[in-house]
Amino acid sequence: MVFRRETKVDAFQRQISALRQQIGSDEGQPEEYDNEPRGNEGASGAYGFSEFASNAVARPAASEEPAPPELPSAPVATPETTVIARNATWKGELQSDGAVHVHGRFEGSIRATEDIFVAEEAEVDATLTAANIVIAGKLQGSVRCGARFEMLPTGRVTGEVQSPTLVIHEGANVTAQFRMGAPDQSENVPTPVTTRRAARGVS
């Protein structure tokens, strides 16, 4: 019996043969295998990326235009709200223990315990005094707020504004002198009324 020592070349050839048996070799394969697209798992046992591509879920392209920001909505009128209609013209002084909404034309002064809202189509030349004032239309005059003054994008203000809080949205047109802080107590400007509810079971 003769033993032959395996050389490095023999070991390399043996490993190559084993690999060919595992993954298959293109040499000597029938023509039917040559017609198969490369990359798929066929009789040769080779794997590709096409099977993963077929299972991939198509994702919709992200919109290039950013969503427009939400604009604040106009205050809602309640049965306690005084409303000056769009086709109405008012001159003089107006006082309300609730809110006042102006949709038409007003000249004079308005004093409200709660809110004053000047609508987009309104034209006001007056002194406004309230806890909160929202301007979406045209205002010329002076403003005294006890809590908050807000201008919507369609608002136009000329005059003087005093309020602890000022909110001006992009697009508003302002030509006014601003004074931050609450008006003097002597002016008796209304402030928001906060109601406290008694806890249950407590007398």
Question: Can you tell me about this structure?
Answer:
The protein has helices spanning 8-23, 31-34, 50-55; strands at 81-84, 89-96, 99-102, 105-112, 115-118, 123-135, 138-151, 156-163, 165-168, 173-180. It folds into two domains: 8-55, no CATH class; 81-187, no CATH class. The N and C termini lie far apart (113 Å). With 203 residues, it is mostly beta strands. It has three helices and ten strands; from the N terminus they run αααββββββββββ. Strands 1, 2, 3, 4, 5, 6, 7, 8, 9 and 10 form a ten-stranded parallel sheet that branches. The radius of gyration is 40 Å and the shape is rod-shaped. The model is unreliable at 32-36, 38-45 and 194-203 (pLDDT under 50).
Record keyword descriptors for this entry.
mainly beta
Compile the SSE list and pairings:
Blueprint: H1 8-23, H2 31-34, H3 50-55, E1 81-84, E2 89-96, E3 99-102, E4 105-112, E5 115-118, E6 123-135, E7 138-151, E8 156-163, E9 165-168, E10 173-180
Parallel strand pairs: 1-3, 2-4, 3-5, 4-6, 5-6, 6-7, 7-8, 7-9, 8-10
On the 0 to 100 scale, the average pLDDT is 77
Strand residue percentage: 35-45%
Give the SSE string: HHHEEEEEEEEEE
Calculate the terminal CA-CA distance, rounded to whole Å: 113 Å
Number of self-contained structural domains: 2
Q: What's the main sheet like?
A: 10 strands, parallel
